[in-house]
Amino acid sequence: MIDKFLAIAQTGKNEWWRYLLGILLTFFSWQVVGVVPFILLAVFIQSDSSAESKFNPQTSKFEGVEPIFPYIGLNLAFVCFLIGLYIAVRFIHQRRFITLVTPSNKINWSRILQGIGVWWILATLISVIESIISPENYQLTFNLGSFLIFVPIALVLTSLQASTEELFFRGYLMQGIGLTTRKAIIPIVGTSILFMLPHLLNPEVKAGFYLLATYYLLLALFLAFITVKDNSLELALAAHIGNNLFAVLFVNYTDSALPSPSVFTIQKIDPVYNLVSSLVVFAGFYWFFFIRKTSERRSN
């Protein structure tokens, strides 16, 4: 195996039972311990008979509740997820946690911030184009008070949520599968399919199952590919954080899995435009970080 990012998993203890135990621990932390805050919030809302708000068990959504509260409840699951993953890496595999991100001794935070900025520029461009094509689909939902309260919460929790998914799928799992083969395509495709599956439960998938399933698969393939290409998880972290922050802060969906007081709300997802525009963003992001710099070096 010649890829440093995948090969770095060899620095820890990697018996098969350690990966089985690590996956079970992270899954338990995420899907069992992690749902406790959401359940407590639902119980609290339901117990307040004087309030108009309530939790609908059929849709698993809160009604008449400020979106900030279910947003926090849902994202706290990823705090538990991250804690479980940290325990697995540090104590079961006895590796440094930073090895999920980079073979280097430190993370390049400026590269992550640059990646988020590039993603936001591209996402803004395609959103502006969509608003021109379908202006009736965009509703201005900006509320200054709610937005100012929400921004610091989103910066912390959404960044943590996206980072945890990257650390687990493109870090822990991809490096683990990479131990079994010299071909990078196998961990890239394998983890991309695993990433797609839980996202198929998102409510927005109802707008077009096959097209949105394709979107999630292509997104995962893109993130995995640039991770191997860059020999680091930094750009995948930037893209994922940038994508999720842009959604919850600026342009969210009516039936989003993560409701938020965003500036604009799209009433209906156009799965075709979503897929095509996402490919444009992927291409633009890849050009900026890989092709542009190569061209500049050649010209010099």
Task: Provide a descriptive summary of the structure in words.
With 300 residues, the protein is mainly α. It has one domain. 66% of the residues lie in helices and 5% in strands. It has ten helices and five strands, in the order αααββααβααααββα. The strands form two sheets. The chain has a three-stranded mixed sheet. The chain starts with a helix and ends with a helix.
SSE map:
Blueprint: H1 4-7, H2 16-31, H3 36-47, E1 54-56, E2 61-63, H4 68-92, H5 109-133, E3 138-140, H6 144-178, H7 185-199, H8 209-230, H9 234-249, E4 251-253, E5 264-266, H10 271-299
Parallel strand pairs: 4-5
Antiparallel strand pairs: 1-2, 3-5
Helix pairs in contact: 2-4, 3-4, 4-6, 5-9, 5-10, 6-7, 6-9, 7-8, 8-9, 8-10
Task: Quickly describe the structure.
One of its GO terms (biological process) is CAAX-box protein maturation. The chain is mostly helical and about 300 residues long.
